[in-house]
Please model this.
Amino acid sequence: MIPYDKRSGKIWYNNELVDWADAKIHILNHGLHYASCVFEGERVYDSKIFKLEEHTSRLFYSAKRMGITIPYSEKDINKASNEIISVQKIENGYVRPMIWRGSEMMAISAQQTKIHVAIATWEWGSYFDPKLKINGIRLNISNWRRPAPNTIPWDTKASGLYMICTLSKHEAEQQGYTDSLMLDHAGNVAEATGANIFFKDKNNELHTPIPDSFLDGITRRTVIDIAKSKGIKIHERKIKPEELKDFVGCFLTGTAAEVTPVSCIADNEFKVCETIIDLNESYQALVRSN
Model:
């Protein structure tokens, strides 16, 4: 795989199309040192960004929660996002808009820093190995927990929130797993390191945690709508880890993960059942129909 700093083409950077290698920032920027950075992850299907407007709206919400005033409108960012995938000739790929505070101040306070905006895009296939997606990925249970909602801006896509996700995923991979299930601050099931989670019971009903300390994913909401259209009952509720043994199916949802079956979480095994396969097929049909 080509390192991301060695790729070619253009990046939309502060309202200019900049050569990929020249899209640089100073090492003493506030975003790097104090996590003053928000971002989005978007998928391109057949040269069109899926749910672009929803992603941009969430980006602006995240920035507002972080006290960041974006120097462009949502319309500007939508236009720039479509422009850069056209310039880069992306057919099926990923888009990463980023907003961060600059280098004018180096301390906790950042009132006088410049706000920078960049949008990069690249061709990208499956987040998980396609073979693993067919058979289901394996998760461990992380020792790290999603923090209490009164300790962080939990409903934003901010860079600082992903530190424990990286730690959790690294630990999972070292143990031979693909990803990690994270619990919330109270010990309930929360999410994977970068995706929401669903469980299927013996009655073909779905259960998913209430997103009250982690991001309510756009893909999560889309899959809930698909399931409801099929007459599948959805239970959004608190789920205890000891309940995992009672479920027969499990899958993750996310912009990167799409709909990914799970074959086990620690010692709890699940089947890649027809319901999950059907939801995945319906999701794939939807993203390519817009």
In short: Residues 52-65 form the longest helix (14 residues). The CA atoms of residues 114 and 268 lie 49 Å apart. The chain has two domains: 4-123, 130-287. The first strand starts at residue 10 and ends at 13.
